[in-house]
Amino acid sequence: MSSRITFKSRLLAMVLFLVSIFVTFPLLAKLGIGLHGWQPVFVIVGVMTSYYFAIWPYVVRLEPWTEYQYWLPKARIAGYAIYLLIPILAIVLLLYLAAKFQFGM
């Protein structure tokens, strides 16, 4: 039997993960522990690892898979516009804005 993660459990897991990341540094500062150089990266990796192995299995709820319904438009032109033209135009717009404002350099 296959299982899936529900939306509510994923939302709760995301909130717990973000709270655990953002609470760690003020807690360390309050305890008087100073972090220098690469130490904050190791703290974040440690929090992520402990979250993944300790918190995640208790937060997610697994339910049986339900069949996924795809939405397909009735008209072929609408389908091409929604699934082909709009994504291509969005990519072109992002590339244009990146070139104009010189992002990534």
Please state roughly what percent of the residues sit in beta strands, choosing from under 5%, 5-15%, 15-25%, 25-35%, 35-45% or over 45%: 5-15%
**Radius of gyration based on Cα positions:** 22 Å
Largest sheet: 2 strands, antiparallel
Structural class: mainly alpha
What is the general shape?
flat
State mean pLDDT (0 to 100 scale): 79
Fraction in helix: 55-70%
Please report the number of helical segments.
3
What is the H/E order?
Answer: EHHEH
Intertermini distance: 49 Å
Question: What strand line-up does the widest sheet have?
Answer: 1-2
Low-confidence stretches: none
The tally of beta strands, per DSSP, is 2
Characterise the protein shown here:
With 105 residues, this protein is mainly α. The chain has three helices and two strands, in the order E-H-H-E-H. It has a two-stranded antiparallel ribbon. Helix 1 (7-30) packs antiparallel against helix 2. The chain is flat. The N and C termini lie far apart (49 Å). The model has no long low-confidence stretch (mean pLDDT 79).
